[in-house]
Amino acid sequence: MTLLLIQLIVAHNSYEDENGDDETLSLELVHRHDSRFGGDDVDQVEAIKGFIQRDLFRREQMDHRKGINQGHHRRKDMEVKKEFQMSMHSGRDYAVGEYFVEVEVGTPGQSFWLVADTGKDLSGVFSLSYCPNNSDPCLFDISYADGSSATGYFGVETISVNLTNGGKGKLENVTIGCTLSVLNGITFTENTGGILGLGFTKGSFVDRASLKYNTKFSYCLVDHLSHRNVSSYLTFGNPKVKLLDEMKTTELFLYQPFYGVNVTGISVGREMLKIPPTVWDFQAEGGMIIDSGTTLAALVLEAYDPVVEALTNSLKHVKRVDKSLGDLDFCFESEGFDPSSMPSLVFHFGGGVKFAPPVKSYVIDFGPNVKCLGFVPINGTGVSVIGNIMQQSHLWQIDVYQNTVSFAPSRCG
Questions:
Q1: Which of 122, 66, 61 is nearest to 256 (CA)?
Q2: Segment 213-257, tens digit of pLDDT
Q3: Cβ distance 362 to 312 under 8 Å?
Q4: Which positions fall inside the Peptidase A1 domain (predicted)?
Q5: Which fold does the domain 248-409 belong to in CATH?
Q6: Does 291 participate in catalysis according to the annotation?
Q7: Which of the following is catalytic: 117, 121, 146, 223?
Q8: Which of 207, 223, 291, 399 is flagged as catalytic?
Q9: Is 338 a catalytic residue?
Q10: Which of 103, 108, 133, 165 is most buried, most CB within 10 Å of its CB?
């Protein structure tokens, strides 16, 4: 599960910016492996096994949260003047698969590292020194996708943001959770203290930000093995990154709180694979979502088997390693591996749009001298997932007003 974190200020008494100029906010996003979290000497193999397990729990929960709301649109006469932009970093140096942003919560502000997660709509802060009174009515008891859970209270808060022109802005009536209890091995600590939910539902962070600032947001995930000094951005408004090709746009399915895409097929080496169309049909309990909170790409077996078979046809001469690497079925010694020998993998979206990730996004580094095909299988029906490793080195832009998903290759700088 990859997480993105953003520096925000949550307060009951916020203030507006002082002028009407277009504005942009920047916050630092840091990968969970960042050494500032105390993880300098982590074991990469164990870290990957951990996020494979968290991804599994996450997908199981996705199947319980169905409810397509296609056709959602914002008011055409809404006034959008301001933008904000949050600096993001990979957490490779902390040996976890998440991305983080620093957030200040409360009055006076208390700094936390929050997970920027498009698969969750509720923003939650854990390990706070203060929570609402027991008499307050809004109690929650939540099970998370990594198998952990937490209880506490949630309510409506104001999130204040630092705009790039030096001004201040605020988001009012954002639903945010608060808890003192962290249960069942949840991976958050007092320093990595919560989630910034970037999924879409009424009252969510994205809902409030799209009303106040801009109806589209974008993020560009640097290579997941990048060190913490390599930055990218989460932006509400127009992204400020250099693209390596033109933006491509396809239809967005609001599979609340998830962001779904209309998949028409997958090809490997220019050959369309034989995958039943129902695999991509949300109404048939299938479909595919783009999820920054899941690390690896996950495919139902009817898609997983032909994809893996087609890719392994080009890996007949590699030396396989034993199958003790979680759900990753095909791993091999990387010595002598030539990425140029791999066929192109292409996801075909509605409108003839093609997403062709680089080889490093589907033949991933697992550990020292070991590479694996970066897919995990989903048994039975369910939603397939384009995880954050598959999304890396691309700008992704989601517009909740136009119902579009756009993307383009980028170095994210």
A1: 66
A2: 888 999 998 888 777 777 788 888 888 889 999 999 999 999 889
A3: no
A4: 99-408
A5: Cathepsin D, subunit A; domain 1 (2.40.70)
A6: yes
A7: 117
A8: 291
A9: no
A10: 103
